[in-house]
Amino acid sequence: MSLEFDHSYKLANQNYDVSLKADVLVIGGGPAGTWAALTATENGASVILVDKGYCGSSGATAPSGNGVWYIPEDQRGEAMKSREALGGYLSERKWMERVLQRTFENVNRLDEWGYPFPIDEHGVKHKRSLQGPEYMRLMRRKLNKAKIKILDHSPALELLYDGYGIAGAAGVQTQENNQTWAVQANSIVIASGGCAFLSKALGCNVLTGDGYLFASEAGADLSGMEFSNAYAITPKYSSITKTAFYEWASFTYEDGSIIEGAGSKRGRSVIAKKLSEGQKVFAQLDKAQNDHDLQKYMRIAQPNFFLQFDRMGINPFEDRFEVTLRFEGTVRGTGGIRITDETCATSVPGLFAAGDAATRELICGGFTGGGSYNAAWAISSGYWSGEAAAKYALTYNRNNHDRTLTRKQVVGINEHHTPGETLGGNELTKLVQAEVTPYNVNLFRAEEKLTSSLLTLNNLWKEAKSHLGEKDSDLVRVRESAAMLATSRWMYSAALQRTETRGMHKRLDFPKTDDHQQRRLITSGLDEIQVNWDSHSLVNI
Amino acid sequence: MIEVLVEERCVECNLCVKVCPLNVFEKRENQPPVIARQSDCQTCYMCELYCPAKALYVAADAEDTVDVSADEIIETGLIGSYRKDIGWGKGYKSTASQDTAYKFYLK
């Protein structure tokens, strides 16, 4: 057995190089995780935050320009109304209101902390946009000031348990000779983001659904997993999944003729259809061609949108460039770990979920949580989960006692392995991607293809249970592939159950919205997946 | 993907090793780090943004490696241009304070 393949063995035997203890463990260092960590500390808890990459640059927010759902009180009615129909009336006013209020207060705190919000020529300060690098650098500084222990490059790979329930997590440190670590904690906030299936959507390759898998292994359920088929327009081969400026674009065939109905919002499926037919699609921001002030504002608002063009030698206002649709899964979808109350608790005591790891149906229903809604949700759910996790940890403090941490048998972490028969993490990832990426399976959904894909994925799960291990990749990739496989199965199980079209979930065989299905779908289980209609009834406003 | 690390410019601060979310770089003793796992690069440009020496260049192609001439990107000023766009580093001011996104929300 080579040294680099020792991690599975070490974790299976609970052989940890580093053992730490805190009241609250936060998994993930994006906006949700940093708000959670900070708020937990403010509520008197000691906190450790672990990040798969680097807290400050990891995830979808850090490399992006981010709109924020920051709305003054007198405009909130309209702001909420504009979302409800799009989301298929699966959102709730009560949640939208409290997210708007929490976001408003927390963004004002960012202002107090020195985030450099722009001030216009009338002296008005604008707080509806956060530049990712600046925002996340500030959050890291706040965590450092609060003396929160951050473990960078320390992916969590499994949760740990004691006689009372969840009790911590274990993982590896990828830059410290792959040392294994364990953190003992009284409560845990999962803020590990959504799942974009390693599609290279901007900043998203650390987002592989790990938190969904951990939560499910602990017994938690998920909600809205059918709303998981977001795709973003990008120039072909580029990672920049920023689509706002395609509002100024026209879309054309290779010969230059206009593609009727193609657009950045509602017309995205027209683009997908052409691409799945094997046609090339081109874009040009010609509607802004003659407005040089507008071009200047665009450039300052989204620097990396133009960075890609500068580096490809393209002038997007003057030139036509080939585009594609890059898969964003649940990152811009709305499904995730089910939230059971206003503290962002999950169905497992002591386990909380925040940001894209949690369902965003509460404020977005079934239509993209992307952009400002996800940002507002991350801030708010991070805050609430951090507050509640601290209270839980301090109320049920077991850290002073001798605790025996135990683990559950989980897919991909095995004491022994048989290399000849092992299914590798990279190999499994490719097999999962082949089922979830194609537009003609995941975007244009119908029973036959969904059923056949789900059968393939379910069989892969059976194989993974006995054979997934370290072979063509390290243990991190192994567990990521297991998380992506589980996520894909929840997605298609829920997509089959919802026999209607609602929000981003479009069924070719059920093109209409069915009033009887104005309910959320709860998905649970790993070996056998159950999909159930939520008993919670929702009202049309 | 990350394509160029100009060793002569590198100040061996190893910030790129630290901030890369995908652990693409590898630290070395008394030498500049190396691009050790290029195919893991997700093209998020964060290494280039954090590099204080304008020694890194990320090409826009996220899927394949492309030929990049170090001389050319130095000459055209493309290397490290993202750091300038964001306004980080000595002599610059964060461009977040000039963020014009609000002009689009008002429309």
TrEMBL record, chain A:
Gene Ontology annotations for the cellular component aspect, listed alphabetically: plasma membrane
GO MF entry, a single one: succinate dehydrogenase activity
Pfam families for the chain: FAD_binding_2 (PF00890), Succ_DH_flav_C (PF02910)
InterPro entries: FAD-dep_OxRdtase_2_FAD-bd, FAD/NAD-bd_sf, Fum_R/Succ_DH_flav-like_C_sf, Fum_Rdtase/Succ_DH_flav-like_C, SdhA/FrdA/AprA
Active site annotation, chain numbering: R268 (proton acceptor)
UniProt domain Fumarate reductase/succinate dehydrogenase flavoprotein-like C-terminal: residue ranges: 439-538
One GO process term, biological-process aspect: anaerobic respiration
Highest rank taxon of the organism: Bacteria
UniProtKB keywords: Flavoprotein, Oxidoreductase
Domain annotation FAD-dependent oxidoreductase 2 FAD-binding: ranges: 23-227
Protein name: FAD-dependent oxidoreductase
Organism of this sequence: Peribacillus asahii
From TrEMBL, chain B:
GO molecular function: iron-sulfur cluster binding; metal ion binding
Domain 4Fe-4S ferredoxin-type, first and last residues per copy: 1-30, 31-61
SUPFAM superfamilies according to UniProt: 4Fe-4S ferredoxins
UniProt KW Metal-binding keyword: yes
The keyword Iron-sulfur is assigned to this record: yes
Keywords, comma-separated and alphabetical: Iron, Iron-sulfur, Metal-binding
UniProt cross-references to InterPro entries, sorted A to Z: 4Fe4S_Fe-S-bd, 4Fe4S_Fe_S_CS
The protein's name: Ferredoxin family protein
